[in-house]
Design brief:
about 30% helix; Rossmann fold
Amino acid sequence: MSSNNKLTFCTGVGTVTGANFLLDTAVDSRVVGDKSVTGTRLLIDCGLVQGEKVALDENSEPFAYDLSSVAALIITHAHLDHVGRIPKLVKDGYHGPIYSTPETRSLAELVLNDAVTILRMEAERDGRVPLYTPEDVAKVFPLWKTIPYHENFKISDDVSIFLKDAGHILGSAMVEVTVAGAQGSGGAQKFLFTGDLGNSPAPLLRDTEPVGDVDYMVMESVYGDRNHESRAERSDKFERIIKQTISRGGTLVIPTFAIDRTQVILYELNNLVENKKIPSVIVYVDSPMATEATRIYAESQDLFNDYVKTQIAHGDKPFSFPHLQFTSSQMQSSNIESNKDAKIILAGSGMSMGGRVIGHEEFYLPDEKSTILLVGYQMSGSLGRHLVDGEKTVQIHGRPVHVKATIETIFGFSAHKDSDHLVEFVSTATPRLKEVFVVMGEPKASMHLAQRINDEIGKKAIVPERLKVYELE
C-alpha cells in the first residue's frame, strides 16, 4: 500500500460552493515516536452546492467516502457552502467530532437552522423529501467542539491542527494540518486549507495571517480572475449611490449575506451618518438571521481590528445609529413597502437566491427612482447575476418583472480577496511550499489564478479534478 498522504476533492472544484475535502494520512503501518499508527482520515468542511440546476441532486448524493472511517471534521467558517451538508453527514451515520472556532460554531447554528426552512421550501416546490430536518440539525451540535486560534490541537497520534485567522468572517479560520512523518522520512508534512480568505484590510476584522511554513496548500479562488475597487473608491461610490437614490425619493435595496456583509455595511452606514455625509433615513435590516448574527458580532469585539476597537473604546457603537430598525416578523417585513419615503433596506440573501430580499426586489425593480445595489459575488444562474448581466426582464416567483430601477455593483464590499491579493497571499509562504491546489471558484477564475501563481510566484499550482486522489510525496 502507498505510504504517501493523499488529498481528495469530493466537491468544491469547478464551482464556488460545496467545500468538502478529504485528507488521508499515510495508510500503511508506521512508527511515530514509540507508537505504531495506520493513518488518519480528516475531512475539511462539508458545504452545500448552491445555485446550479444540478445542486439539489448533487447535495442528495451519498458521500464519496466511508463515514465511519473519518476521524474528525474541521470547519473553516460558518457560511452555508462550507457547513450546509453537516446535518446530512450526521444523518447518514457520521458520529465523530466536529471542530471549529467558538464563533464559527455559534454562527453555524444560526445558518443551519435557517437552512432547514429553505431546504423544506425547495423540497416542497420540487416534490422531494427535504435534505434534513430540524431534528437532524439538533443532532449536530452535541458533536461540535471548539478550538481557539493559535492553539496546537492533537486529532490523533499522527495528526494535529492549528487554526489561523482567515479574516473572512467572524471566526473564520485557515486550518494548518501537521502530519507526523515515519521514522527516517525526513520529518512532518504540513498542509494549509485556507477556507475563504478575507478582503484585508477589512472594515471590521483583523487581516488574514500569512501562509507561513507549509508543504501543500488548498486555497479558494472566487475572485481569481478579477480585482475589486480600492477601499477609497468603494466608500466614495457607496456614498454617491446612497445620495443619488435618496435625492430621487427612492429606495436603496441591498441584498446582503446575514453574516459579515450586513455587519460591514452597517458599520459603513454608521460612519457615514455620524460624519453627516449622508442624510439620516430609515435603514431596515430585514433578516432575523442577520439580526442575531449582528448580536454575535457585537459580543465578539476582541476579534475586530485595532481601529474599530479604538472607535468602540471612545464610545462608538458600530451597529447602532439613528433610524436603524431590525425587523423580525414577516408582517413587519411586508409593512416596509408601505413606507413611501426614501429609505435603505438590507435583506438576504446576498445573491438574491431566496429570503426576504426577493419580495423587495419584486416590488422595487420596476421603480425607476429606486436602486438595487449588489455588493458581492453573484453566482451564475442567480437573480443577482441576471441583474449584473444587465437583463431588462427577470423572473421572480414565476412572473416576469421589468427592470427599471438603477442596478449598481460594488465588489469592494466582498469578504473575499481579489486576484492580486490572492497572489500576494501565496507569496507569504516560505520556500518550503511545493504545490497549491486551487479550488472554490468558477473554472475560468481558478485556472487564471493557478496560472498566475505558476508564472508570478514560481510555485506549482493546479486546479484539481473532482474525486481524483492526489498522492503527495
